[in-house]
Amino acid sequence: MDSVFFVLEIIGTVAFAVSGAMIAMHKKMDIFGVVILGLTTAVGGGVIRDIILGITPPATFVNPVYALVAVGTSLIVFLPFVQKLIVHERKIYEILLLFTDSIGLGVFSVMGVKTAYSQSSEYGLFLLIFVGVITGVGGGILRDLFAGNTPFIFVKHFYACASLIGTIACAVLWKYVGDFIAMVVGVSLIVVLRILAAIFHWKLPKPRLYDE
């Protein structure tokens, strides 16, 4: 089972690194900026999670495999033929960004719950959910701030809310169906909600005065 969780984390790391590197490319950053934004997006949420749970130093610095995967992925995104695809094919860029960001959000949200449970099974539901959401959105927040954008969680269709719903489902189901099924349900919910939100343009209410 540990190998399954490891594969999930690698998938999430690659997905988030791609989304970070793509945004850096869109912002016309150099290769260093592309790598840093990809790395920050991939491991940022996990670092914040570990600090909240008192895991020091954070796992990223103890086992650098995730950082190395993120750097390698970012360098691949920087390859000329990938650059051309991202810069000139806007529709492909948007679809790829949606899918990679959704997968990364889903995987890291439930991995946040798993990490909290591994520290103590006595943690309350609020902490489990909070840690899950912050693990999922933390790297994206840092990515957007570094790129000079308003973080997705404040403006994008159903971003943090998808993480919240999936994390709640994962945390609630954990003791009843086991960790693996709970995590699969959580990831699936988050990814499906993010994609449906993009297709149907689901948005949270905003102040009406800005529409006048």
End-to-end separation:
54 Å
User: Low-confidence parts, pLDDT < 50 over ≥5 residues?
Assistant: none
Radius of gyration: 17 Å
Please, how many helices? Answer: 10
Mean pLDDT score, rounded?
A: 88
Helix share bin: over 70%
- The number of distinct β-strands equals 0
* Global structural class: mainly alpha
The rough form would be described as globular
Task: Give an overview in words.
- Helix 1 (2-26) packs parallel to helix 7 (125-147), helix 2 (31-53) packs parallel to helix 6 (90-119) and helix 7 runs antiparallel to helix 9 (160-177).
- The protein has helices spanning 2-26, 31-53, 59-62, 65-77, 80-88, 90-119, 125-147, 152-155, 160-177, 179-200.
- It is mainly α.
- The chain contains ten helices and no strands.
- The N and C termini lie far apart (54 Å).
- The longest helix has 30 residues, at 90-119.
